[in-house]
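Checklist before submission:
- one chain only
- standard amino acids only
- sequence pasted in full

Submission:
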Amino acid sequence: MSDRFKSRQERKQAQRKKGASSKKPRSLFKKILLTMAILFGIGVVGGGTTIAIMIATAPDLDPEKLTLIQSMQIYDMNDELVSTLDASEFRVSANIQDMPDHLKNAFIAVEDQRFYDHFGIDLKRLGGAIWANITGGFGAEGASTITQQLVKNLFLTNEKALTRKVQEQYLAIQLERKYSKEEILEMYLNQINLGPSAGYGVQIAAETYFNKSLDELSVADAAVLAAIPRRPTFYDPHRNPENAEGRRNTVLNLMEEQGFITKEEADEARNTPIADQMDYTTKERYAYATFYDEVLDELQDNEELASNNLLNSGLKVYTTLDPKAQESVDRVLKSGEYQGLVFPQDNEDFKVGVTLVDTKSGAVRAFGNDIKENNQRDWNHATDPKQQGSAMKPLLAYAPGIEMNKWSTAKVLVDEKHNYTDGTPISNANNSYLGAMTMREALVRSRNIPAVKAMQEVSKDEAYAFLDPMIKIPETTKDKDGKVTHHRVEAGVLGGTQVSTKQMAGAYAAFGNGGTFTEPYIIRKVVFPDGREMNMEPESEKVMEDYTAYMVTDMLKDVINNPIGTGKAAKVAGIPVAGKTGTTNFNDKVRAHYNITDPNAYPASTFSGYSTNYTASVWMGFSKNGENNYLTDAHKTTAQSIFKHIMTEVHKGVDTPDFVKPDSVVVRNVKTPSDQISRELFVRGTEPEEIPENTGISDPSKLTADYDKDTNTLTFSWDYPEDEREEVNFEASIDKGSLQVNQNEMKAVFTNVTPGETYTFTVKAVSANEESKAVILKVTPGAANDEDEEENEEEPPEPTPPGDDDNGDSPPPSNGRPPEEEAPPSNENPGDGDTTSPPNDGDGDGGDTETPVEPDPPDEE
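Returned file contents:
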C-alpha cells in the first residue's frame, strides 16, 4: 500500500517510528562522550593519586647520601662479612673551581646539553623519550639529566619502572631547589663511575689514566673521561682502548657541535691516538682485590645495577669467595715456598692466571693473578681470554665424538701426515708420526693429528655446537681497521681459540660433575638497603651424557697417572684428579721480530684439571711479546705444579671420593693396534665381546691392613717381586675415600676411619703397556670381636673399570714408544677452510700458535 492511501493514524505512527530511529544515533553519541568524560576524569584522579603515591613513597633527599658515605658490604660463601668497600678507596673529591671548563663541558655535551637551562627535568628531551617509549616500549630511551642521574645513583635503583622514573624526576626537582647548578655538577663529577680501572670521580680518574692533575687535562683527556659513564667497563680506556677512542670522538663531535670547542681543537683531539694519552698508574689495593674486582664487574654487568654508584649504594653482596682457598692460591703463587714453581726472573711482563671453582656448583672459590705481592690494580689474567693450547682437545675432539657417535676409548685413530680441510699441513712434535693408536693413547700423548682427525670426523660445526653451552666461541670478530678474524676454526682443537681460565674451569667441571654444567659465578645474591633481594645464581644445565663425562674423565686421569702421559707433574697425592696440559707456540714472524733463537721457546703454558670437589685452571705466560718474553724447557711443568700445590692445599681435611662409573658405561678387554690387551670403556650397548686378559706382569701379593686406634688410621701394605718393581707403579684405591700412597714402600694410608665399618681396598701393578690383576682386601677395623675382618681376593667379581681406582686407569699400550714430552712444535702455519692463517698447536706437539699482543676484550656487550 502506498503512503497516499494510508490513513492519518497510520501516517502518524510511521512518523513517530521515523523520529525515534533518527534520534537513536545522537543519543548513543552523547552516551559515549559522557562515558569518555567520566573515564578521563577517573583517569586524571586515579593517575594523580597514583603519582602522588609514587612521590609519597620516594626516599628522602638525605644530605648524608650526597656526601657519599654509604659503603658496600661483601660476604663470603659462609655469609661471613669479609670486607666493607668504601668509595674513599676509589675516589678523591675535587672542588668545582679546580675543574677546567673543557672537562665540565665534555660531560655536559654528552650527558645533558641543556643542563644550565632546565629545572632538573629537560622537557624537550623528555618529549622525545616519551615518543620513543610509545613506539619502542617503556625503557626504549631515557631522558635523564645530570641531576636525575645523580639522584638515581645515590637514592634509587636502575630498574626501568615507571615508579622509579617518577620518583627520580620528583627528587631531581627537589635537588635543584636546594642546590646550585655548580654544586650539583660538582657532586656529579665526584661520584660518577669512571671505569673499573680507576673508580669514581674525575680526579682519581685523571691521576689513574693519565697521571695528571685536573688542571693538566687536555680536551682529548676530558673527552675520554666523559665517554666512560655510559658503559663504564666497555669504555674503560685501560681495558678497552679501542672502544674508548671511538666513544671519545663522539664526545668531541658533540662538543664541537654545541660550541664548546673549535673545529681545530676537535680535529687535534680526534687525531691524537688514545695510546699517546694514556699513562696508566695504579694505587694500593685491599685484600682479595682480584676477587672483589670481579664482583664489581659482575654487578656492573647487571642491567639493574650497572649505573648505580655501587660502592656507596649500601648493597650487601653475598659472594662465593672461600677465604681459605683464596689464601691458599695466593700462598702458592707468591710465597716461593713450593717446589717445582720455576718462573722467569725479573720479568714484569710475566703473568699467571688461576680460577678455582666448586666442581658441583660452579661457584668460584678463588682467583689467582700474578706471582708477586702486589695490591695494585691490574688486568685479571684469570678472566682474560687466552689461548689454552691442547687443553681444548677434550672439549672439541674427543667429548663431541663420544657424545654424538658413542665412540669408545678404544676407537682407533691414525697418527700420520694429514691436512686441515683447506689443505694446510698439520704437524706433530719433531714431525714424527706414531701410526695407529687408540683414542685414549692419542689424548694421553696429546697428539695433534689424531685430535684434528677426530674433530673432522665429528665435523667442525658439530664440535663447536657441543662446546657452545659451556663456552660460546664467536664466529668472527672485526677490529677497528675492519679486518675480520674467524674463530670457529679446525685449529681451535689445538688451542687456536681464546678462552679464559674461568671459562675453562667451568667446562672441565662439567666433566667432573657427570655432564652437568653451571656457568662459573661469584655472586650468590644482592640485598638492597630496603631489604629487597636479587638472586644471581645461574641455573645448571645438562650439557652432555654421563657416559661422555665419565669416559673423558677416565682418559684425563691417565694424562696424569700414566707413565707416558704429559701431565705427570700435576699428580696430587691421595686425591683422584683428571686434567689436560696445554702449550702455545710462536710463529717464524714473531721469532724473527723479537730475535727469539731458542728452538724450544714458547709463549704460554696451561693446565686444567679437576677432582670431584674442585676444578682449577691455570695459565702462565706474558702480557705482551718481547725479546725475553718466552718460556723454556725449565718451565714446562710449572703450570702443572701450580695446579698440584693448589689442589693439595684446598683438599686438606676434605673427603674426596673418586669419580663413579655410571651404568651407561661398560668395561671390556680389547686388542689395541699394537696387539696389546687393554681395558677400555664403551657406551652400554656398543661393547664387543670380552677378550681374556693376558697379563705378563706379576700381581701384588701379601696384602695386610694395620689399624691404629690412637691415630684412627688404616695402613695397607703389600709385596711385589723385587726384580720387577722398577718397571711398575701401583694404583691403589679404597671404596670410601682417598688414600695417601707411598710407591717405594708399597703402602697406602687411610685416615678418619669409622670403627666397625667395612672398607674395601684394591691395588694393582701398572707398567707402560700392561697391568696386573686387581687384588682386593676387605677390612673392618674396630669390629665387635676387636679383630679386623680381612678377606683377600685375586680379582673383583666384575672387572674393575678404568678410573675406579684412586690413581687412574690402566695405561694405554705404548707400542714401545717413549713417554710423551711436551716440546715446542715446528714452525708451520696451518690453515682452515674459513680463515686466513689460524693458530695450530696446543701442546707443543706440532704446529704453531702465534701469540700476538692481545687486545683488551670488551666486558660488556
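Reviewer check: Residues 8-56 form the longest helix (49 residues).
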